[in-house]
Amino acid sequence: MKIGIMGGTFDPIHNGHLMLGHAAYETFSLDQIWFMPNGNPPHKKSETIKSTAEDRMKMTSLAIAPFPEFVLQPYEALREEVSCSYQTMEYFKEMYPEDEFYFIIGADSLMAIETWVHPERIFPTCTILATYRDEIKTKEEMDQQIHHLSEKYGAQVLLMETPLMPVSSHELRASLQAGESVSAYVPDAVCGYINEHQLYR
Which DSSP string do the residues of 108-161 spell out, in sequence order? Predict the structure, then answer.
């Protein structure tokens, strides 16, 4: 199978995440997209994550439930240790040697990927799908970075233009804290869960 990996804190998951998953699924004819909430990501301090891993897994599960091609991948959320991408991808490659993995990241992550822990160990495990919008990084800059990563690490990187979703999880948390509705940006089932459990208040 061809499997796309969508990692993130998903705090909370929103329609932009789902839109990105659909774009990768359709553009590259993938069989599944695994939505993988981070448990203890190395680049974020734990105090910036405002809901529990259990809540974020539940919200992700509710958001992707209508789409059979989307799958909840709890591996990182269930780990107590810091989860580094190279460790996760090496684990998946060992567990599912017959499958092809496509690791979905944004333009900013592509430009910064050499600052990650052991980036050289990520590239042999997967193809990188780098999403871009012209207002974040120009395609020319990304093409230069792809050429560099290919020459230095033998990386396989594909570009994917994505629609702009004018919202972030950070902005949604601020709106919820202010008592504002986020129903335009978040699936109904996730809104219901947030309200029921009084998250981000």
Answer: HHHHHGGGSSSGGGTGGG-EEEEEE-TTTS-HHHHHHHHHHHHHHH---EEEEE
Tell me 3's DSSP state.
E
Of 23, 16, 20, 12, which Cα lies nearest the Cα of 166? 16
Q: Number of structural domains, the chain?
A: 1
Evaluate whether residue 48 is within a structural domain.
yes
Residue-wise pLDDT tens for the chain (201 aa)? 999 999 999 999 999 999 999 999 999 999 999 999 987 665 555 556 778 999 999 999 999 999 999 999 999 999 888 889 999 999 999 999 999 999 999 888 999 999 999 999 999 999 999 998 765 557 888 999 999 999 999 999 999 988 777 788 999 999 999 989 999 999 999 999 999 999 998
Instruction: Tokens for 16, please give them.
Output: 């932009």
Structural domain that includes position 58: 2-165
Residue 185, amino acid: Y
In a domain? residue 187: no
Residue 93, classified by CB atoms within 10 Å of its CB into exposed (0-12), middle (13-18) or buried (19+), is middle
| Rg for the chain, CA atoms, rounded | 17
Q: Would 119 be classed as within a structural domain?
A: yes
